[in-house]
Design a protein that fits this description.
alpha/beta
């Protein structure tokens, strides 16, 4: 072997050793980078921007960059801050249908900030929400629709008040009449700081997990359930019963009992309406009377679900039949609603004097078919119902055919009314 070949061989060995050393260093560097990511977290997580609502655009639209201090709408790694008066009752942001928003945290700070949500979706990716974070703050979140999902640490704090101030307590108000909120933990009133959290569940669903104790209510805080629903993860019956005993959870402002149901790994809490509505009682006075029929007549031709008694998405004479026949258990033509259709009802409409006058008429004035007039159409409706002189409806097995006596009575009535009109 020549001297040159020996030198070349030694050089190759040194090069191979250097290459192996480089690979080893590269592996170490990769491990260090992985550890740094796990310990420190992604760069985006430590560079979250604090963006404050200004409302300068004047349109109350959350998704409008002109309404935010940075000139951009807060994103999934940003902290959205709301202060009054910039986020007050007239200037506060509105989240509506079609909005699909993400923020890292929600902070309601000084003053009386208000957020209104009527639809859309909001995802909170970080710690959660600190609602009423400053001494004396009075922050409100009013939700009638949409969905909020706390996907990060997921804590909703109401009455956070990070600084102790027993004189000027903060108040965080969360009011739901619809929609759905899912949190991993909920604190109403932060321990020792004097903040107060108030939850009004007048509709919608509030789902609470088990993080940081799940549901915690303290410091004069309260939850009032009416038509809404509270759903807790796991069997939380004993905790809920304790809150009920301490009047920290009440129904209808303390006037109603609460129902607790544990099933499927969930505890569901609802309120039992102390004054359940009467079907067909459109004026909500507790009774079925002629005023309800007149309100129904005014709704004919529409699709208002309140008056749609047969659930066909229409309000018409078919709904009137449900009210008269099924709910009131009487007859078309029973003007005084005493349960019978007889001559006393004719006297009542005769006295009103609205037949064929084109003046508006109500049920007691002869408008039996719901067109808000008293004319021949009302006689037709009463004849078809066949209730004249049949007594109470409950005593009749089937709808009778019009009798000769009935036809004579209706004919005489029409004749008298016609002469009076002339």
């Amino acid at each position: 072997m020549t001297r040159n070949s020996v030198r070349k061989k030694m050089s190759n060995r040194r090069g191979l050793k250097l290459f192996k050393g480089f690979l080893a260093l590269n592996r170490v560097a990769s491990v260090i980078c992985c550890i740094a990511v796990l310990v420190i977290g992604p760069v985006a997580e430590i560079s979250a921007a604090r963006i404050t609502w200004t409302g300068e655009a004047g349109d109350n639209v959350w998704d409008n960059e002109e309404n935010w201090s940075s000139g951009s709408v807060p994103g999934r790694n940003d902290i959205a801050i709301l202060n009054g008066p910039d986020a007050g009752s007239r200037k506060g942001p509105i989240i509506a249908d079609g909005d699909n928003l993400k923020v890292k945290e929600l902070i309601a700070d000084e003053g009386r900030p208000l957020v209104t949500m009527t639809g859309g979706k909001l995802e909170v990716t970080g710690f959660g929400a600190r609602w009423a974070d400053a001494s004396g703050a009075n922050a409100s979140f009013k939700m009638s629709g949409g969905e909020i999902d706390f996907t990060g640490t997921g804590i909703l704090n109401l009455g956070w008040q990070s600084r102790v101030d027993p004189v000027r307590s903060s108040r965080g108000m969360w009011e739901m009449t619809g929609g759905e909120v899912t949190v991993k933990g909920l604190e109403a009133g932060v321990s020792g700081n004097g903040g107060i959290g108030m939850i009004d569940l007048h509709g919608g669903t509030l789902n609470v997990g088990i993080s940081r104790g799940g549901l915690t209510i303290r410091n004069r805080s309260k939850m009032d359930i009416t038509e809404g629903k509270l759903v807790l993860t796991g069997d939380q019956k004993s905790k809920v019963e304790g809150y009920i005993d301490d009047r920290l959870i009440v129904g209808y402002g303390g006037k109603a009992e609460l129902a607790i149901n544990v099933s499927g790994g969930k505890t569901t809490v609802t309120a039992i309406d102390p004054n359940p509505s009467v079907p067909g009682d459109f004026n909500e006075d507790g009774i079925l009377d002629a005023e309800d029929l007149d309100l129904q007549a005014a709704a004919f031709g529409g699709n208002n679900a309140d008056f749609d008694l047969n659930s066909d998405n229409k309000v018409n004479f078919a709904d009137r039949l449900v009210w008269v026949n099924d709910l009131k258990n009487t007859w078309i033509g029973d003007s005084n609603l005493d349960g019978k259709f007889d001559s006393t009802d004719f006297v009542l409409v005769l006295t009103a004097g609205r037949y064929d006058t084109f003046f508006p008429a109500g049920w007691t004035e002869g408008d039996w078919d719901g067109n808000r007039l008293f004319n021949s159409g009302d006689f037709v409706a009463a004849l078809q119902a066949g209730g004249y002189d049949q007594g109470p409806r409950a005593a009749v097995a089937a709808v009778p055919e019009p009798s000769s006596l009935m036809l004579i009575a209706f004919g005489l009535m029409a004749l008298v009314l016609g002469r009076r009109r002339r």
